[in-house]
Amino acid sequence: MATNREPEFNPQLAAFARSAITRRTALGGLAAVAATGFLAACGTPGKAPTASAGASKTPLSAPDLSDTEKVVNWSNWPQYIDVNDKGKRPTLDAFIKESGIKVKYNEDYNDNDEFFAKVRPLLEAGKDTGRDVWCSTDWMVARLKRLGYIQPLDKANIPNAANLATSLTNVEFDPGRAFSLPWQSGFAGIAYNPKSTGGKAVTTIDQLLHDATLKGKVTLLTEMRDTVGLILMEQGKRLDNFTAEDFAAALQVLSDAKDAGQIKGFTGNDYTKPLASGDTAACVAWTGDVVQLRLDNPSLGFVLPEKGFTLWSDNFVIPAMAQHKKNAEKVINYYYDPKVMAEVAAYVNYIAPVQGVKEVLTKSDPSMANNDLIFPSDATLAKSQVFRGLTAEEETTFTRQFQALVTG
Q1: Is 396 part of any domain?
Q2: Alpha helix segments (H runs only) across 220-365
Q3: For residue range 87-103, what is the model confidence (pLDDT) as tens digits?
Q4: How many whole angstroms separate alpha carbon 177 and alpha carbon 300?
Q5: Per-residue pLDDT reduced to its tens digit, 336-368
Q6: How far apart are CA 323 and CA 315, in angstroms?
Q7: Which end of the chain has a smaller Cβ tally under 10 Å, C or N?
Q8: Residue whose C-alpha is closest to residue 223's, from 122, 137, 303, 146
Q9: Are strands 301-303 and 282-286 parallel, antiparallel or unpaired?
Q10: Same domain for 299 and 237
C-alpha cells in the first residue's frame, strides 16, 4: 500500500542529483523560451488534485515581522535574474528603492534535493530557515506542500497575481495556486549536430534511442522527469496519469538502448560543448542551451518531438516559519508586473508566466516575437506535458530505479 509519509532523506540520491550541472548554471545565464500562453500544457483549468498529491500537513507560521523589519531573504538558482554589465540586478535594485525593503538575494539553490537537505532539518523541527521565499521546481513544491513545509499565499498582498496566465491557475500539484506562483519555465526536447548525423535531422525519441548511425554518440539527461518523460510520451502515455508499469516499461526501453551501446552517457548541462563540437551527435536538451549555442553555430538543430515534450516550472514558495511573509509577497507581486517580468525575461529568456510580457518585449525587441522557441505558438504549447506529482513512495522507488540505470 502506498503511503504519503515522506521517506528519510537519502544522501546517495542527493549526491546523484548534485552530480548533474543544473540547467540554470550553464553558459553564463542561458537563453531559453519566454512566453505567456502555456495553455493546458501546464495545467487544466478546474482540474482536481490527483491522489498522487497526497494529503498535506498544516504548515507552521511565525509572527510576521514585515512591518517593523524591512527586509526579505530570497534564495534562488544561480544566474536566474536580470544582471547588467556592472553586475547589478536592475529589477531588484528598483524594488528596493521603490519599497524601502532590503532584499538579501542568495544564489544558493543549486539543486532541489540538495536545497531540501539543507532546510528540511529546520522545517521538521518547526524552526525558521532564515529564508522568506525561494523558487522550487514543480515536483519539489508538491513534496513541500505535502509535508506542510510551505505556507498559503495571501493574495491580498499579491494583486498582480491576477496577471498569471489563466491556464496556470490549476496545476495538479497546487490547484488554484494557493501555495505557489511560477517564476520561470522551460522545455526539454532533442538537439542534434548535422555534422555528426550525416546531415539528417533527429526528430523522435525512437530515432534517438535506436538509429544505428547515432550509436555511441547520444546523451540523455540525468533529470529523471525529462528523460523518462520523453520516453513515456513516445510510447503514447500521458505524463499526468502514467502507471508504475508504464514507468517500468519506459525504463526497459532506456536500459535496452544503453545495453546496445546507443547511449554515450547521461549529463546535466555538460552536453553543450560535445554537442557543439560534434562529439555528441544528438541528445536530450533544454531549449535555452540550444538557443544560446545557435548564436555561434546556427546549423545546430532542435526539435520538440511530435508526440510530446516535457515542461518544467520553478515556483515562488514561502516556507513555514518565515519571518517576513508579507515582504516576500510584495516581492512576488512586484515581479508579476508585466513590465518588470519582461526585464527579467529579456535577460534569462525563459518562459515568463505573466500575461502581458510578450507585448512588452515585442515593442522593445520585435525580432523575439518571430521565434517559436521564444514565444511558442498555441499548437506548440498544446503538445507539452508536465510530469505528474508522485507519492513519497513512488518518488523514492522511481528515483532509485533511474539512478541504478544511469550509474550502473
Answers
A1: no
A2: 224-234, 244-259, 272-277, 287-296, 325-335, 338-348, 357-364
A3: 999 999 999 999 999 99
A4: 38
A5: 999 999 999 888 878 889 999 999 988 988 776
A6: 20
A7: N
A8: 137
A9: unpaired
A10: yes
Domain assignment present for residue 6? The answer is: no
Helices 11-18 and 112-124: angle between axes, nearest 10 degrees: 140
Give the mean pLDDT of 77-94.
Answer: 93
Do the domain assignments include residue 4? no
The answer on 293 and 198 residing in a single domain is yes
387 within domain boundaries: no
Tell me which residue of 385, 25, 20 sits closest to 172, measured CA to CA. Answer: 385
**pLDDT tier at 393, thresholds 50, 70, 90:** very high
Domain count, the chain: 2
Mean pLDDT of all residues in the chain? 85
- Would you call 167 helix, strand, or coil by DSSP? helix
Question: Domain range for residue 230?
Answer: 188-310+403-407
If phi > 0 it is left, if psi is from -120 to 50 it is alpha, else beta; for residue 87 that is left
What is the 3-class SS of the chain, one letter each residue? Answer: CCCCCCCCCCHHHHHHHHCCCCCCCHHHHCCCCCCCCCHHHCCCCCCCCCHHHCCCCCCCCCCCCCCCCCEEEEECCCCCCCCCCCCCCHHHHHHHHHHCCEEEEECCCCCHHHHHHHHHHHHHCCCCCCCCEEEEEHHHHHHHHHHCCECCCCHHHCHHHHHECHHHCEECCEECCCCCEEEEEEEEEEEECHHHHCCCCCCCHHHHHHCHHHCCCEEEECCHHHHHHHHHHHCCCCCCCCCHHHHHHHHHHHHHHHHCCCEEEEECHHHHHHHHHCCCCEEEEEHHHHHHHHHHCCCCEEECCCCCEEEEEEEEECECCCCCHHHHHHHHHHHCCHHHHHHHHHHHCCECCECCHHHHHHHHCHHHHHCCCCCCCHHHHHCEECCCCCCHHHHHHHHHHHHHHHHC
3-state class of 87 per DSSP?
A: coil
Rounded Cα distance between 174 and 355, Å, is 20
Confidence (pLDDT) at 302: 94
- Find where cell 508526440 sits: 307
In the beta sheet, which residues pair with residue 313? 185
Read off the pTM: 0.77
Same domain, 304 and 326: no
Answer yes or no: do 268 and 291 share one domain.
Answer: yes
Which CATH number belongs to the domain containing residue 21 in this structure? Answer: 3.40.190.10
Q: What residue type is assigned to position 373 of the chain?
A: L
